[in-house]
Design goal:
The protein is of the alpha/beta class. It has helices spanning 2-10, 25-35, 81-95, 137-142, 151-157, 193-198, 208-217, 238-264, and strands at residues 17-21, 38-39, 52-58, 61-67, 99-108, 119-127, 145-146, 161-165, 170-174, 177-183, 203-205, 222-231. Strands 5-11-10-6-12 form a 5-stranded mixed β-barrel. Strands 8-9 form a two-stranded antiparallel ribbon. A hairpin with a 2-residue loop joins strand 3 (52-58) and strand 4. Helix 2 (25-35) packs parallel to helix 8.
Length: 272
């Protein structure tokens, strides 16, 4: 009932503040450039954490993009569910956004119709590596959650297709289609195939379900935009395909997020 009340109280007021959560620097920079945001050098985050915030006004919207930064010891992107959960929680508490967007890249499954370069609007998210074989705890482990429903956004943007050029080929891809997302702390884990199938996932990533959990806990609507870098059930080695396509697909992701934000501008939650 609390979530329904939260939406009903805000549905008549235009969205004014958006929080975009991104996992990696390669993913975040094209979005920052598209929305013309600047890094916040006066960090709102706890002292010592590597988290980064970009902020600015885009049209009528106050937008913050946060990502967990680089690991302070190893210098790599702080990917995974723990980093995503922490930065999402602190950012929601500090910024009180009207809407959370989790944007990033993902692996896709050709068996579910995914193609490299496709951009998906996620309908449901679930964990695939939290296996607790005890009644009810098993459901908690899976943590299935429905993303905030945006039928008008989907209706408007999913009719568009475009050409995409990758290092090895050029082809037409969908700009926005719908799929389910499966989250794990493993980049590639063949032993999780059964869980992925059970989740009926079209996509797999390393942070979406964690963002969904925190947004649900704090009663903030959340949507998820994922662009496909590699085909998990395809013929190419995952790491090779991911590395080849990452730059081009993150550029596509940045454009897709900008289109979504353009659609959101001036609208209420109920109009999405």
């Amino acid at each position: 009932m609390e979530k329904i009340t939260m939406v009903s109280e805000t549905e008549k007021h235009p969205i004014s503040t958006i929080l975009i959560v991104v996992a990696m620097q390669t993913e975040v920079l094209p979005i920052v450039n598209q929305l013309q945001l600047k890094e916040d050098l006066n960090s709102m985050f706890p002292k010592g954490v590597p988290w980064v915030r970009y902020h600015g006004t885009y049209k009528e919207l106050d937008i913050s993009i946060v990502w967990p930064g680089k690991d302070t010891v190893l210098g790599v992107d702080s990917v995974g569910t723990i980093s995503a959960s922490l930065v999402t929680y602190v950012s929601i508490q500090a910024l009180q956004p009207d809407l959370v967007i989790n944007a990033g890249t993902a692996g896709g499954f050709k068996a579910k119709g995914a193609t490299v370069g496709d951009t998906f609007l996620v309908s449901h998210v679930a964990f695939r590596d939290r296996r607790i074989p005890i009644p009810v705890f098993d459901l908690y482990g899976i943590g299935l959650r429905q993303a905030f429903s945006t039928p008008n956004l989907l209706r408007t943007l999913n009719l568009k297709v475009k050409w995409m050029t990758l290092p090895t080929e050029t082809f037409i891809v969908d700009v926005l289609v719908v799929g389910k997302l499966s989250t794990s702390d493993s980049f590639e884990a063949p032993q999780e195939k059964a869980s992925i199938i059970k989740n009926e996932a079209t996509l797999e990533d390393m942070e979406g379900a964690a963002v969904a959990y925190v947004a649900d806990l704090l009663k903030v609507p959340a949507v998820f935009i994922k662009a496909v870098t590699n085909i998990v059930d395809g013929d190419k080695p995952t790491i090779v395909e991911y590395s080849q396509n990452l730059t081009a697909v993150t550029a596509t992701l940045g454009q897709a997020v900008a289109e979504v934000v353009d659609f959101i501008n001036g609208k209420c939650l109920s109009e999405l």
